């Protein structure tokens, strides 16, 4: 694997993702705050080249200005959302290919949580940075997009190679597992994954990255067969305590 990816906890339950190339170049996705990223970058002994943004929410962009000032990193985000993202050096559109720390990356449309949300797929490294579109055993709230858009976005992610690492924006797995078990109580993969999540949390470890294959087997939102099903379980999750 030419590039490694590590979660960096930010704020209360966010993850930024630090990408490291063998030559020491670094990139970060969705830095919700600067301090933990700067600590991780400095510990990696590197220089931050690039900041990738999946969407405009403050818990994903809050650290950008400080990291740009500190490292001179370039900022990559959706052209369609440029008006509400921090200033972009590279404005991208879905379908476009870009270079991130020396490897090719595909920009994928992933509307649903917001309109203009994008995901970054590293096909040669089996890495997916998906922001608040897909979570382990869950998906993002539909704050701007429609169930149709989220269904299409999740389908687009579900057909990526099963070994692809799902690097999502939040540690929501424990509550997602509780809800998912109400949807598919008889799903053995889901039960096994819920047990694993409980163990990981008890040890204070992140439950992510997970993989596309695991999510296809256990995540009821990824497994929804049609838009109506996705809409129904998304609405149920919104009211789940
Ligand atoms: Zn968000
Ligand atoms: Fe978020």
TrEMBL record:
Keyword Hydrolase in record: yes
Primary enzyme class: hydrolase
Cofactor binding mode and count: Binds 2 Zn(2+) ions per subunit.
EC number in record: 3.1.2.6
Keyword hit for NAD: no
Origin: domain of life: Bacteria
Protein's pathway: Secondary metabolite metabolism; methylglyoxal degradation; (R)-lactate from methylglyoxal: step 2/2
Keyword terms, alphabetized: Hydrolase, Metal-binding, Zinc
Binding, Zn(2+) 1: 55, 57, 113, 132
Gene Ontology terms: biological process: antibiotic catabolic process; methylglyoxal catabolic process to D-lactate via S-lactoyl-glutathione
GO molecular function, one term: zinc ion binding
SUPFAM superfamilies named among the record's database cross-references: Metallo-hydrolase/oxidoreductase (SSF56281)
Domain Metallo-beta-lactamase: 13-170
Cofactor: Zn(2+)
Pfam families: HAGH_C, Lactamase_B
Binding-site residues, Zn(2+) 2: 59-60, 132, 170
Reaction catalysed by this enzyme: an S-(2-hydroxyacyl)glutathione + H2O = a 2-hydroxy carboxylate + glutathione + H(+)
Function: Thiolesterase that catalyzes the hydrolysis of S-D-lactoyl-glutathione to form glutathione and D-lactic acid.
Quaternary structure and partners: Monomer.
Protein family per UniProt: Belongs to the metallo-beta-lactamase superfamily. Glyoxalase II family.
PANTHER family listed in its UniProt record: HYDROXYACYLGLUTATHIONE HYDROLASE, HYDROXYACYLGLUTATHIONE HYDROLASE GLOB
Protein name: Hydroxyacylglutathione hydrolase
Gene name of this polypeptide: gloB
